[in-house]
Amino acid sequence: MKNIIKKIEEVSKETCLTQDEKFAVRKNLLKYMSQNPVQEKHTIRSPWFASSSRFRGKKVLSAVVLFGVVGGGTLSFAAEAALPGDVLYPVKTGINEPVHRVVLFTPQEKADWDVRLVERRLDEISKLSESNSISPEAKARIENRLEIYTNRVKNNIDTFENEEDYEKANEVLEKLNTTLGKYHSRNEDEDDKNFGIKTEVVDNTGVTTSVPVVVPVRGIHREGESYERVQKELEYVQNKRSVLVEKRKAYMEKRREELEHSNKKREELRMQDFTNEPTLNEELKSDKDSENETHSE
Amino acid sequence: MKTNTENSDFLKWYDEFSDAIFKHVAFRLSDREKAVDVTQEAFIRLWDTVTRGNRIENPRALLYKIANNLIIDEYRKKKTVSLDEMRDEQDFDIGYGGRGDVEDEDDHLKLLHLIAQLPEPYRDVLTMRHVDGFSVKEIARMVGETENVVSVRIHRAIQKIKDEYEKHY
User: Fold this and answer.
1) A34 has a chain B CB within 8 A of its CB
2) What are the tens digits of pLDDT across the range B53-82?
3) Does the complex come out with an ipTM higher than 0.95?
């Protein structure tokens, strides 16, 4: 047994490629290698991945971020046209609008944006009532939002008012007035279309009179809560405007008084200074006195 | 630059392992000419792996694996050649190194004849154990059998050669 194993090992030791074979195979391999060179991987790298190896694991992450930025932008852009009940409507009110408000800098800009929000809600109400596709829940929600935004505008006006910045308060108020007025007149026009139609009625005395045909108003026109709210807000605007005018007048009066007062005071001071000023004769006299004193010494 | 190092690495592997691979293939196929071809093919496949950008940790193990697959391909061709036929052919000189004396040479050829006639599973493990010098554990892992099975096979292979040797010569 041992003998056999030893013999096998001896044979295996002797078994090898001859020099010629080895050389021939090597030559073939070299030829094959030159025909099939190593593929240079990652030789041209994108400048965006300058240190590619560090970012390789983060490519997926960057893709997600990129998608977030691009996709998010597209989404929020698409959401701009959404109406209550649409899938993207929460994106419009929950993301787009607060984000827009955050990037605004001055209180004035923020106040203007709040007015714009009221306008947006009113536009949505109009659009929905036109298509008659408003559900009661959506209507309630939108009216709730309208209330929130108008209250916010009112707060802004109050803030300006407390700061005695009546110019700005008035500006915001007028913007609110324009917005509300636009909606109001739009509904008025709608109603006028119906109310404009008149019919001839002959009464028992034989006199013919034109009487407007009463057409039942649909949707939220006139009888809608938002319409009532707009009317209420318009009343608020009227009241506030007169308040502001009064306050502004009082403020101006006060300022004028203050100004007059300060002018008067300045004048008095000046006069006082003038009277206190030593006259030329006195000066000369005092100089002479001092001279005399020195001489006497 | 990178290509150059890969080229020189590969040539280094060739110089280092070509004889061992050839020996392994030659014993298992019992055909010198085929063994040279298979050895060359094994190195070509190894180079292909390199060019695909794979990092090769253990070239020796990979070469044996490639060689093993190529040998199995050859087995599938099922071309049985008797040792006598091969002996008549000029280029059958497996084990011929020209160093030993004539008697030894004859003895070795007899042995090779017997190994060539062993059933493939016996020949494979015998080659791995006594030609390549792998441990039983390594062989067991390579052929996918338990160490016990491998040991038994090696033992039986040697027993068989011994019996045949005594019977015929």
Assistant:
1) no
2) 888 888 998 999 999 999 988 888 765 555
3) no
